[in-house]
Amino acid sequence: MKLKHWAGIASATAMIASFSAQAADVTLRFAHPWPAGSAIHNGLEEWSQSLNQASDGRIEVQLFPSQTLAKAAKSYDAVIGRIADVTATVQGYTANRFPLTQVIELPGIVETSAQGSCILQKLYDQGALADEYSDTHVLFVYTNGPGHLHTRKQEVKKPEDLAGMRIRRPTTLIGELFEELGAQSAGMPAPEIYQSLQRNVIDGVAISWDGAKVFRLNELTRHHTELNLYSLSFVVTMNKDVYSQLPVDLKTVVDTHSGEKWSQHMAAVFDDLDKQSRSEAQAKGSKIVELTDELRSAWQPALQKVTEKYLDALESQGLPARKVYQHVQILNEQCTPIEG
């Protein structure tokens, strides 16, 4: 009797295991550069779990954090080549590929991730950016909050304070700004910044508050200058063939996990991280230089020059950069909450 009992349990267990293995019709490999366990990873995991639940388990998502499936700078191409099925990545990691998208990254546009993500998602939904993503199937786009300067030993208040410093640039455009102000500009993906700071390869970094927390940069930087230098744009996108080959009902599930709702989902993650990170720096006794009117005035000529230079460069290539920039200003009025 005992043998029959255990044989029955073994058979039932095997059937359950077999059912579980066969439950998913589609398995999506999702590559991204953020550390496992970070709030950003968790935000993407919530999207993955919601997709799985909405499909009754027929879509399974395997997350590959920390560049384990594709390097950050190569993950968009990894989706095109189907090394990954889905990625969340930074458009600026591939220079000159998303020039109109990156209009949103110009100084002073983004005040919060929620506001910036609203603008960028509307830009995409209204067709202003569609040509830049013709080789993948975009699910949603978003931005982080504004990027600032975080330095180890030297406080930066005025533009001339940057002279001689080695600063990690977030984008080519901001790198050119640093060079014009006498700094040495260094390019590297965010996961490599900590080690570069630790080894004194760089003196500081231009990054958002969320990035300072996720990549533990508050441990090494002691001066934080809130300049609203830029923002970063992000895209969550899928291989076109993977999407087109989905059954109609599963396409619908993917479609409901696209667009503004999930753009704002990730925006909430970033805005919360910004608050946490700033509080963390204050708790460590680090000095925060806030963006006062005086500080804004000191930096405005250099930041305005960057904006004009970028727009002029795109216009010279036949791209409607100023039209998109004006569109951004209009959308900003729709995306900025009215206080009071």
TrEMBL record:
<dbReference type="Pfam" id="PF03480">
    <property type="entry name" value="DctP"/>
</dbReference>
<dbReference type="InterPro" id="IPR018389">
    <property type="entry name" value="DctP_fam"/>
</dbReference>
<dbReference type="GO" id="GO:0055085">
    <property type="term" value="P:transmembrane transport"/>
</dbReference>
<protein>
    <submittedName>
        <fullName>TRAP-type C4-dicarboxylate transport system, substrate-binding protein</fullName>
    </submittedName>
</protein>
<feature type="signal peptide">
    <location>
        <begin position="1"/>
        <end position="23"/>
    </location>
</feature>
<keyword id="KW-0732">Signal</keyword>
<dbReference type="InterPro" id="IPR038404">
    <property type="entry name" value="TRAP_DctP_sf"/>
</dbReference>
